[in-house]
Every structure is written in structure tokens, then in C-alpha cells.
Write a structure and sequence with these properties.
The complex is a heterodimer of chains A (218) and B (205).
Chain A: H1 2-11, H2 14-21, H3 38-41, H4 47-71, H5 80-102, H6 104-110, H7 112-115, H8 121-129, H9 136-166, E1 168-169, E2 172-173, H10 177-181, H11 194-210
Antiparallel strand pairs in A: 1-2
Helix pairs in contact in A: 2-9, 4-5, 4-6, 4-8, 4-9, 5-6, 9-11
Chain B: H1 2-14, H2 25-31, H3 35-64, H4 85-107, H5 109-115, H6 126-137, H7 143-171, H8 183-197
Helix pairs in contact in B: 1-7, 3-4, 3-6, 3-7, 4-5, 4-6
The chains are: A mainly alpha (218), B mainly alpha (205).
Chain lengths: 218, 205
Amino acid sequence: MNDKKIRGKSVFSKNNLKILTEPFSGNNPIIVQILGICSALAVTVKLEPAIVMALSVTFVLSFSNLIYSLIRKTVPPRIRIIVQLIIISTLVIFVDQLLKAFVYDISKQLSVFVGLIITNCVIMGRLEAFASNNNPWTSFLDGVGNGIGYGMILIIVAFFRELLGSGTILGYNVIPQALYNLGYVNNGLMILPPMALILIGVIIWVHRSINKELTDKN
Amino acid sequence: MKELINIFVRSIFIDNMIFAYFLGMCSYLAVSKTVKTSNGLGIAVVFVLVVTVPINFFINKYLLSPGALSFINPSLADVDLSFLSFIVFIAVIAAIVQLVEMVIEKFLPTLYISLGIFLPLIAVNCAIMGASLFMQERGLQTFNESLSFALGSGIGWWLAIVSIAAIREKLTYSNIPAPLRGNGIAFIITGLMAIAFMSFMGITI
């Protein structure tokens, strides 16, 4: 009983919760650490692929953190990068095959960007910075936290791009026909790649106006 | 020949790695503070691309793509190993990057120090992996096509990072709203540059 209580405490202690929730805002992988933008933006034209991408990244991130943390003491430092890449790419192949089997259309839309999860800097960054010197459970939580933080930004960007660019959310029309009759038009610019960058810039702007301590000094 | 030049020009301007596909953004944003370092990284990326994409092209053509193994034995004609391509491509890239790192450390020590952590991270630069995957997905047919695609993508990436570095050097003197300083403004400028690059759309030679 006592033992269980201690274990229960250590599983979701204050420190662990902080590890889990810090990447949501204060240490967000995309807008604060500026990692993983590569594969993030190209999938944000529509909400659905963005959600699938967010889930895939969270899965790969948390399990690669867990696996690498389990073997961290046996990996010689000189070959650690290739070991990390092997772990990540095995998990990504797994995700890719699952997507092809169950959601083929979305997997076609994501095209090369599923494969590019391997080179997503968030994953390598977390393995290097966190999983290589922390125990498996906290590493797993860190992975889940960062995955959610990453997914949040992806979904916010995709939400605005789909709403303003095509007038739909998850494929359903949300802008009433009456508005179109009044002369409202979808903003075609939102579908084009540059707007993803500008939206991220605006999100950073808003986020840093709220959290002043993150502002760059120069 | 015309086809090769077409692929080359397309991959520099229209299918630019940064402005059209956002590949390699991490190092693009992190290293683009001075022109000198970004120039060094740009050259390193061009070099790694030109070496890795053709190697991966041969691996893809003769080992991985459906029916590729039939040159060994006709009974292997229905073997499809393309699900292995991620892991094989990344292994080739990681090995080549290790090699480039050793060469730069030996011959250009100042560049080696200024690139710091970003040199080994070329291995996980999405532009490199992305080029190999695009090569596979677009089904480039010959060695020359893959070479001109790799060279074009590399030069496009180099052009992008050097131009943003030049703009960011000047930005140091301008009065930007505090929350937008640093990465915020870099994103917005990249977006504007991408809009400018869209004017190349539709060019054919």
C-alpha cells in the first residue's frame, strides 16, 4: 500500500507533470525551440492531414524517446546518431505502413512528409537533449508533451488555413452560402505555401506578446 | 539536354526546397544570422545533396523499387522492397555526412568551428532526405536527371539561406516590435520571399 502510494506519486509527480505540460506553451517545440518546422508546414493546407501528422509525430516521438532511454547506457557516444536514426526510421516505417493500410487517401496527401518525420528535428532534438540522460518514464512523458505541443501548432495553423482558404473545416462547409452571395470569397492566398510561414510568424508574435520573457534581446 | 536544364531550373526556382516545401527550415532559421556561416552551410548542403541523391537513385533503381531485383534472377521480379527505402536512404545520408564532417574538420577548421552542431545535423536536414524521397516519388529515370535535380535543389537551398542571411544582417539595425524580433520576423520575411518566388511559377525552358 505504502509502496504503491510512493510509486503512484512518482509516476505523476509535480516534476513529471511539468515535463509533460511545459512543451505546450513555455517550451513549445515549434514556436519557442524553432524545431521541426520542415515537415510541419507543408501538411497544414487542410485540417485532416494535419491531425494525422500530429498523431504520427506524437507516436514516433514518445516511443523513440522511450526506446532510446531504455538503451541509453549501452550506446557508445560516437555512433549514437546512427542508432537514433535507426530507431526513428523503424518507427516511421511502421507508421507509414499503418497509414497506407488504413487511411490511404490521407497517406497519399502527406506523400513524402511521412518519411520526413525521420529527419524531423524535434525528434532528434528531444533524443539528444532529454532521452539520452533521463529515465524511460520521464522521457516518454517528455515525448508525449512535445508531440502534443507540436501538434497543437500544426492544428491551429491548419484550422485557419482551411477556414479562410477553402471555407471548410474537416471538409464540411462552415461559411454560410448567404455570405458568398453577399460577395465573400475564399482567400486563395491561404492555400499557397507562403501563408503557412506568415501564420507561424503571427503565432510567434502573439505568443511572445503574452509571454514577455521569451522575447529576443537583440 | 533540354530536359535536364528544365529539371535544374525548376528545382532552383519553382520547387525551391525552402519556399515551396519548407524543407531544411531548422538549420535555415538557426544558422542564417551571418552571411559567412550560411554560405558555408549552403555549400556543404549542395555537396551532400549531389553525393547522396545519385547514390540513393542507384539503390532505389537496382535494389528497392518493385521488380528491381529481377536482374539477379527473374524469379525475384515480384519482390518489392520499397518499404525499406526510408531506412536505407537515411543510412546512406548519415554515412556521407560523417565523411563530409571529417573532411571539413581536416581542411577547413574555421568553418568547422563556426558551423558547430549544425554540421552533424545536416544528416537530419530535411532537405537532404526530402530530395531523396522526391527523387523516388517523382520517378526520375536516369542518373543525369537525378544529378541535375540534386544540384538544382542544393543551389536553391543555398540561394535561400544566403539571401535571408543578408536580409537578417540588415534587420539588426531596424526597429522591430519586441515580440516579433528574432525568429518571428524571420518567418514573416521568409513568407514574403516565398511569395516573390511564386512569380517564377510556370517557367519552362
